[in-house]
Amino acid sequence: MMTNYQECLQKKRFKDVIEKAEASIGMSMSSVYATILYRIDDYTSCIQALLNNTDLERTALEEISSRLQRFLREIVELRDRQENYEKTCSIYNKIQNFPPGHVIPSNRKIIRDGVVITKLEKTSSKQPLHLFLFNDVCIFATPKHLQFVVSFSTEKMVYEPADEFLAENEMAINIIPQNAPKLVVYVSQSEDKAGWMSCFDQVTEPFRVFRVPIHVLLEREKRKVPSMFQEWIDFLSQDQALSEEGLFRISAPRLKLLQVVLMYDTGQKLDLTNETDIHLVSSLLKYWLKSLPYPLLLGPDNQERYNEWVALATMEIEADDMQMRILQILSSLPSEYFKLVKKLVRFLFKVSEEKNTRMTSSNLAIVFSPLLLHRRDDEFQTSVFRSAAILESLKSLLFFIIHHSPSIFPRKSMLSSAPTPVTPLSQGHHPHPLPHPLPHPHPPHHHPHPLP
Fold first, then answer.
1. pLDDT recorded at residue 376
2. Between 180 and 413, where is the model more confident?
3. Is the pLDDT of residue 194 over 90?
4. pLDDT in tens, 72-128
5. Does residue 15 contact residue 22 with C-beta atoms inside 8 Å?
6. CA–CA distance, 427 with 299 (Å, rounded to integer)
7. Whole-number Å distance between alpha carbons of 401 and 346
8. At what angle do helices 278-291 and 254-265 cross, to 10 degrees?
9. In angstroms, how far is the first alpha carbon of the chain from the final one?
10. Predicted local confidence at residue 55, as pLDDT
11. Which whole-number Å values give the CA distances from 189 to 114, 143, 257, 266, 377, in the listed order?
12. For residues 257 and 179, what is the distance between their CA atoms, to the nearest angstrom?
């Protein structure tokens, strides 16, 4: 149901309904909800006790318990909708000079609000503005008197960390609406950084391709492999791409890359049938891997699995044993991660075999180890695991995986899907104080430029 904003304020229909209901029962609606919830909880506990301690007919009791639980969820949802709608109307009532005729959807939900330093497009000055971030719209107002400044839909809105030189601990976020001027939001406190980024993730996830968990993409597309990942791999597997010197070492211009990222995040795609910029497509693949919330070789349990990779990378063992232990860790990945790892590593081996690219397994490991094996959390930035020696060992480990891809991921094997989990690595292995990285077969020819 859609409610006109002006009518909501002038006639106060919603508020009138609540007030009349409260007057008729002699208590606030919040108290009513609380009373119902407490009683349902008591009834459920009583039924559970009967199920545990009596010989009564279980089917009837279980059906009653199920209905109570369903009713409980409906009451909680109704309560949350009422509270959220009241809060939304209250926010709109406070904003001065809001454009008339605006319509408030009944499912509009406030995600977060607060004062942020903001710079609008085509202006050089920064100003504090109060940002109200809803699930479907962003509203900016002056912080003191809440005078309306600008609003825009979050549909197909894109955001990203801005590439600016900033003071220590400060972060800039580019907000790119579909039909409104771009702006930049600046946050400094660590909790604000994580909080705002998480909230922007929440409102933009239904449309984005980048910075989205793999399982979300697969559920959205009803596929086993994300479509754009497969399209990029297919494009880069063509003879023309595999004869391109510096494939993955050379990056596309950052502005051009971000423009194409914006296309994908707003439901469009690059026309790969007519695309000639090989480095643009390779940069898209790298950017997507870098943007994953959980790196491909770590998965959701990234801290524990990272420790396992570090322990393995710093062991001095024979190649056969190394392959077995690599498969043990890979087998613990979710199946969707395993499928992508196998497809990517096989492709990277193919690249390393093409002499024209001049990208050996070692060169590719230098490029891809930060994308596949580095944790994304803040703790990693100050962790002992981020030492140069450890990172070098992880590069050598990825080199080993790529170089031995034919035996780790044989074409005709029971490993065509994720393998059955095997006994995990022994808990007794720990990184040596001075890691001994796996040897390179020969030094790399090129050192890749930093990723965009």
1. 65
2. 180
3. no
4. 777 777 777 778 888 888 888 899 988 877 778 878 888 999 998 898 877 778 899
5. no
6. 19
7. 10
8. 60
9. 45
10. 61
11. 13, 18, 29, 30, 16
12. 20
Alpha-carbon separation of residue 391 from 63, 251, 373 (angstroms): 56, 22, 9
Strand locations in 5-109 (E): 103-105
The residue type found at 7 is E
Cα–Cα distance for residue pair 377/243, rounded to 1 Å: 37
Q: Are 403 and 345 in contact (CB under 8 A)?
A: no
pTM of structure = 0.61
Alpha helix (H) residue ranges in 173-298: 190-204, 214-221, 227-236, 239-242, 254-265, 278-291
Q: Residue 162 corresponds to which tokens in the numbers above?
A: 């801005």
Q: Which two tokens stand for residue 278?
A: 């090989």
Confidence band of 132 (pLDDT split at 50, 70, 90): very high
Q: Which residues pair with 141 in a beta bridge?
A: 130, 148
Q: Which residues contact 382 (CB under 8 A, 6 or more apart)?
A: none
CA–chain centroid gap for 145, Å, is 35
Asked if residue 197 lies in contact with residue 173, where contact means CB atoms within 8 angstroms, the answer is yes
Structure tokens at 117: 């330093």
- Comparing C-alpha atoms, which of 433, 301, 430 is closest to residue 377? 301
